[in-house]
Amino acid sequence: MNVLPRKDFNDVSLVLCGAAGQGVQTIEEILVKSLHEGGYHVFASREYMSRVRGGNNSTEIRVSTEPVNAFVDRIDLLLPFNQGVRQNIRERITESTVILGDKEELGEELSDTEGWFVDVDLLKRGHEVGGKVYSGVVAAGIVASLFGLDRSILYGFFEKRFAGKEEVVEKNRKAVDAGYEIGANMKNDKSLEIILEGKRKGEQSVVLNGTDALSLGALAGGCDFVTSYPMSPATGVLTFMAKNSHRFGIAVEQAEDEIAAINLALGASYGGARPMATTSGGGLALMSEGISLGGITELPVVIHVGQRPGPATGMATRTEQADLEFVLHAGHGEFPKAVFAPGSLEETFYLSQRAFNLAARYQTPVFILTDQYFLNSYYDIEPFDAEGLTIEKHIVESTEDYQRYVVTEDGISPRSVPGYGKGMVGTDSHEHDADGHVQEDFHLRKRMVEKRLRKMEGLKKETVPPTLLGTEDYDSLVIAWGSTRHIVEEAVKRLGRKGTAVLHFSQVYPLPKETESYLRKAKIVIDVEGNATGQLARLIRTETGFEIPRRILSYTGLQMSVEFVADELRKLLSREV
Amino acid sequence: MDWKIYDLEGIDIQWCPGCGDFQIMEALKKALADLELAPSEVVLFSGIGQAAKMPHFMKGNFFNGLHGRSISNATGMKAANPEMVVIAIGGDGDMYGEGGNHFLHTIRRNPDVTNMVHNNMVYGLTKGQASPTSPLGFKTPVQVDGVFEEPFNPLAVAIAQGATFVARAFSGYVEETKEIIKQAIRHKGYSLVDIFQPCVSFNKINTHKWFRENTYFLEEGYDPTDRKAAMMKAFEKEPYPLGILYREEGKKTFEENLACYVEDKTSLYRRERKPALVAQFLKELE
Question: Which residues pair with A479 in a beta bridge?
Answer without folding.
Answer: A503, A527
